[in-house]
């Protein structure tokens, strides 16, 4: 196990329009400084809208300046944009437009040093049937070579049971598309951590840390059904090497910085325990 701690962009800022996760348009710069202050290694950048997101505008040099100044990397992009602008079950015109957006995102992600674009296939973009699976595979195959040639990989976050998830990944060419693993989603769906890591061995390339209740919502760390002891025990035995991105619930009445520090200390206790 070789891991570094990062945080989901926006968690170091106050919530936007009462949403749990959104690009922090007015405070993204401050988050790099706060990231250094609390000693995180990376921020997972959120791409949820084309408008006013500096990664898609002429601010690449500015982003790189803050990465360098504060020594907080952007290793991965959480592309929530494709939860609404889906890569399947859309018109041919919209699919082309969305794939073009993905290619542009990949080009700009490379410019800031990112290696992973994570596409969520949950909630509004969940794969409901075999038709959805075949469509997303067919459509991603149209651009995956270009993205891989840039030195990036795609990871998929799904709510599929582990064997179905593996089957989906194996529909792509080997070593082109991988898995995002989310501790909270796993707990909410009632999946077995050991089984997931065994089945998806070698496929997991980035990990989100959160706590959720079984069949329910995200809650503060330690209050849900995520078995962190079991997770870190299995993680230690695994071949995983990469970031652990904190994506925890916002604690009511607590400032974002303190909330993130609390979660960092929570995770560090487990890392120390299983080091």
Q: What is the mean predicted local confidence, pLDDT?
A: 96
Distance between the termini: 9 Å
Q: Determine Rg (CA atoms, Å).
A: 18 Å
Strand order, sheet with most strands: 1-2-3-4-5-6-7-10
Pick out its properties.
about 280 residues, alpha/beta, TIM Barrel
Please explain how this structure is put together.
The protein has 275 residues and is an alpha/beta fold. It has one domain (2-273): Divalent-metal-dependent TIM barrel enzymes (TIM Barrel, Alpha-Beta Barrel), CATH 3.20.20. The protein contains 11 helices and 10 strands. The chain has helices at residues 28-37, 60-70, 81-84, 92-111, 130-141, 144-149, 162-169, 183-189, 193-199, 228-237, 256-273, and strands at residues 2-8, 42-46, 76-78, 116-121, 153-158, 177-182, 204-209, 211-212, 218-219, 241-246. The strands form 2 sheets. Strands 1-2-3-4-5-6-7-10 form an 8-stranded parallel β-barrel. Strands 8-9 form a two-stranded antiparallel ribbon. Helix 7 links the parallel strand 5 (153-158) and strand 6. The protein is globular. The termini are close together. The mean pLDDT is 96.
Furnish the topology, listing elements before pairings.
Layout: E1 2-8, H1 28-37, E2 42-46, H2 60-70, E3 76-78, H3 81-84, H4 92-111, E4 116-121, H5 130-141, H6 144-149, E5 153-158, H7 162-169, E6 177-182, H8 183-189, H9 193-199, E7 204-209, E8 211-212, E9 218-219, H10 228-237, E10 241-246, H11 256-273
